[in-house]
Design a protein that fits this description.
Its EC number is 5.1.3.2. Keywords: Carbohydrate metabolism, Isomerase, NAD. This is UDP-glucose 4-epimerase. Homodimer. α1 links the parallel β1 and β2. α3 runs parallel beside α5, α7 crosses α11 and α9 packs across α11. 39% of the residues lie in helices and 17% in strands. The chain is globular and about 55 Å long. The chain contains eleven helices and 13 strands. It is of the alpha/beta class. The protein has a domain of 214 residues: NAD(P)-binding Rossmann-like Domain (Rossmann fold, 3-Layer(aba) Sandwich). The structure holds uridine-5'-diphosphate.
Length: 340
């Protein structure tokens, strides 16, 4: 079994990727500092796989500690780097923490990987790098625009750092940058899923918590945008579909099939849905009536963005499989397993 280091492997997307990696015949090794994830995730992963996944409680930005993981785990074939802070609003409040953590952990990883001859990297990027795009859907060739938050800027900077490092003369690093659209839902088993700390920032956990009676009502952030029903458009991708994109990307790197030292792929469904589409689809999929109100716009929101998913399909053979309704049903099933 080829060994793949998964930083942030106890997080939302990371935990689903760990499961898919193992089921695809890889040996995942988790590195996580549990700053925004819970130990219970490990039990969920173990319950799905029937085996425990080796896990190191290490902060990726701690170079000595990260080196210790590479020493303890010889023959790592590649790294999937998920570990990062991810809340747009929080990044405006604590920009320095975002740069230190998101940029810092990448720099540390890029310094340590070559010491151990590890050359393959899959990096978690985001459609936030496109800013407010001029045309939709966005392709990988769509020019990036100023990001609307420090969070988005960390993703842009990390992409640039990877390009620069890869361009150095004796560099051996090969990277696939995956630009995620909006991950939602949970594993079919409902043993792992999203675990927001406190009041959720993201739409779908807010919806499921409202349906579960934890929140009184959902506030839709604006209905006066230039979209069919006035609410924002996003591309919502099931988290297991998104996780599977990482397995294809890892395989491509290990097979030496990448055309360039850095390749970039959008990972979305190619469909744009409004916030009201999501609310109505959730109501149908769950049989729950959702209490919601229309509120003011949320600062920093991009009016509309969704992926052109053609490149991932043509080059990686990757296509999403789960509908919006099924994704939302899985989110609801997961919510019902959580204590209030
Ligand atoms: N949204 C909303 N109410 C909420 C949370 C989110 O109306 O309580 C909207 C938000 O304005 C955006 C969409 O849902 O249009 C997705 O937001 P989310 O924070 O989940 O992801 P983002 O696209 O901002 O990364």
């Amino acid at each position: 079994m080829k060994k793949i280091l998964v930083t942030g492997g106890a997080g939302y997307i990371g935990s689903h990727a760990v499961v898919e990696l193992y089921q695809a015949g890889y040996q995942p090794v988790i590195v996580d500092n549990f700053s925004n994830s819970e130990e219970s995730v490990l039990a969920g992963i173990e319950s799905i796989l029937g085996v425990a996944v080796p896990t190191y409680r290490v902060d990726c930005a701690d170079e000595a500690a990260l080196r210790g993981v590479f020493e303890a785990e010889p023959n790592i074939a590649g790294v999937i780097h998920f570990a990062a802070f991810k809340a747009v609003g929080e990044s405006v409040q604590k920009p320095l923490a975002y740069f230190q953590n998101n940029v810092g952990s990448l720099l540390t990883l890029l310094a340590v990987m070559p010491e151990f001859g590890v050359e393959n990297l899959v990096f978690s990027s985001s459609c936030t790098v496109y800013g407010i795009p001029d045309a939709l859907p966005v392709t990988e060739a769509t020019p990036t625009k100023p990001a609307s938050s420090p969070y988005g800027r960390t993703k842009q900077m990390c992409e640039e750092i990877i390009h620069d490092v890869s361009g150095a003369p004796d560099n051996k690093l090969r990277t696939i940058l995956l630009r995620y659209f909006n991950p939602i839902g949970a594993h079919d088993s409902a043993k792992i899923g999203e675990l927001p700390l406190g009041v959720p920032n993201n739409l779908v956990p807010f919806i499921t918590q409202t349906a579960a009676g934890i929140r009184e009502k959902l506030t839709i952030f604006g209905n006066d945008y230039d979209t069919p029903d006035g609410t924002n458009i996003r591309d919502y991708i099931h988290v297991v579909d998104l996780a599977k994109a990482h397995i294809v990307a890892v395989q491509r790197l290990l097979d030496h099939k990448a055309d360039e030292t850095v390749e970039t792929f959008n990972v979305g469904t190619g469909n744009g849905n409004t916030v009201l589409d999501v609310v109505q689809t959730f109501e149908k999929a769950s049989g729950q009536k959702l209490n919601y109100v229309i509120g003011p716009r949320r600062p920093g929101d991009v009016p509309a963005i969704y992926a052109d998913a053609t490149k991932a399909e043509q080059v990686l053979g990757f296509k999403t499989e789960t509908s919006l309704a099924d994704s939302l049903a899985s989110a609801w099933k997961w919510q019902q397993t959580l204590k209030k």
